[in-house]
Structure formats: C-alpha cells, structure tokens
Amino acid sequence: MNFINVERFTPKLIAWQKKQGRHHLPWQLNRTAYRVWLSEVMLQQTQVTTVIERYQAFLERFPTVDDLASASVDDVLAEWSGMGYYTRARNLHKCAQVVMNQFDGIFPSDPEQLESLPGIGRSTAAAIAVFAYGKSAAILDGNVKRVLARVWGVQDDLSKSAAVKELWAHAETLLPDSSEDLITYTQGLMDFGATCCTQSNPACSVKGSMTCPFLNACQAKKLNIIQNIPLKIRKVKVSKVDMNWWVVVRDGKVLLEKRAHQGIWAGLWSFPEELSLPVGSDILDGKPIQHLLSHRKLTIQPKLVALKKKLPKMGDHLSWVGFAELDKLGLPTPVKLFLKDLNLARDGA
Description:
- By secondary structure, this protein is α+β, with helices and mostly antiparallel strands.
- It contains 13 helices and 7 strands.
- Strands 1, 2, 3, 4, 5, 6 and 7 form a 7-stranded mixed beta sheet that branches.
- Strand 1 and strand 2 (253-258) form a beta hairpin.
- Helix 1 packs across helix 11 (179-195) and helix 9 (142-151) crosses helix 11 (179-195).
- The longest helix has 17 residues, at 179-195.
- The protein is elongated.
C-alpha cells in the first residue's frame, strides 16, 4: 500500500471529536476496564441504540466482573437473549472467569495480555488499554478500517490478512504523542466512522450533514470511489437450513430443549427438533417461519402437538418450563417471539 501524506490527520480528527463526536454514551462515563470491555463486545455486532438499553440492563444484573464470573452461563445467556451472536455472551462468561482466576479480578493493562483472554481480539484489547488504562495502542475495527481505507484511498482487498496487516501498521503511525489526546483520538476514530464516514450515505455525500474534516484530503473522495471502499471481494456463502419445531404445551408449561454446545444457537433453549410422541397425538402444522442468520437462512416448520398421553421418559436436554419462567432462559429471537405469540393465544383461549 502507498500511504501518501495526509497532513495533520490526527490533530484534525481530535478537533472533530471534541466538536462533533459523542460524549455522553453510558460506557464513556466512569470508564473501568470491565465497563469498556462489556461495551466493546456488545458493540461488535449490535446497533448503538440497542446497546445503550441492553448495556445498562446487563450492568444492573452483573455489576462487576466477579458477579459475571459467579453467574451460570444460562443466566448470562438469558440476559443476552435477543442480541444474537451468542458466542459473545459465552466468551464474556469465560473471560470473566479467567480474569477472576488468573488476574485476581483485575483486567490486565497490557494489550497483548488482554488479547489472550477469551473473546478479546486485537482491536478490543487496544480499546480497553486506551480507555481504561491510558495505554498507547491502535484500534482497527470495521469502522476504523473504512475510515483509513477511504482517506488514504486503499483499494486492496481487506478480507486478505496481508492487506489488514499493512493497515494495522499504518494505524499505529497515526497515534498521538500526547497521552492527553489518546482517548479523544481513539474515540474520534470510532465516532467518525459510526456517524460521519458511514458505510452508506457518508456525510460528504449528503447535503446539510455534518462536515468531514478530510474533504480536501480524502483520496476516495477525489477518485469518486467512496462506495467501493473498503473493498471486500470475499463473499459470505449463505446456506439454507430446514428444521422442525415440535411445540408441546401441557399444564401451563412448554417443552423446551437445551441445544448442544456447537452449531446454531449453541447452548440456548429452543423447541425440540426431534421428538418421540405417544401414539394418537394430534399434530398441526403452523405457519412456516423464515429467519436469517449471518451465514444461514433458516426455514422453520412449527409442529403443534396435542398430547393424548404423557411423553415417554425424556432425556436431560428436555425440560418443561412454565411461561412465567421463560425470561430466565437464554432464548433465540425467533423462539422468544414464537413463545410470546403462543402465550398470548393460550391466554386468549
């Protein structure tokens, strides 16, 4: 990559952040390593507006890393329920336990040590080190990659590790010398990518929007290739998955299955996909459900079962759960929505 000189990029970004950046997000207040870590993990795959609400609720449930480590993984998944990408929640739980057991409950300040913890990548480790400990470290999440690639006109395929490695090296050269500016600069990169240099309709293409301080320097703007950067040639292959849900309700309880620790919705509770039913059970097909995951398109066929006899002996992975107890379980979004409708129909019956 040919990184031309973009004059005063770092001080211009710092000035932009002070004037136009975000300053009152919940995780920007009382910045501890635990709070920064939690917010960074939540923000990886979830919109800021959603995280604001869920972050506060999560902190109320697990106010310290000790509280999180001491909880069961089911409790953590239940609190995370509905936010998707549940590996994040499982890694949060594992990481909290490692911090308690190996670091006496204190997150390390060294970025390399932070990166060794479950679920913490290089950019998240840097964010914790910067915001919680004032360490000098470069971040390079999706927003930052887009900003740097556009300003410097990087047209390399950023799905390739070699291209990302060069961008990391460049990001490290941009860090401010003053420790006082480090937090403002790092937050500025995040905010600028999230609110100004956005993936679609960046500020420079929308009249009356906030001003980009790099209008005269941005190579993507000069070359009219903003919408083509960052370049990612590799396409995600989406596979189609068909599944049945066996929906059984008895005595105010619904039959649920604890899913395996691998695969779709690992470790969460859902309806059984396979079930041995007693002879004479009535089965009615419900309306099929379509649900899109990052790499899978699910077609779900609910099978509504009316039992005439009790189920044969069930395995440990199956459990009868009262409708009032459902909020204590980690439930995938489509399961939660279906159960809500099922409960409403049951109450109205």
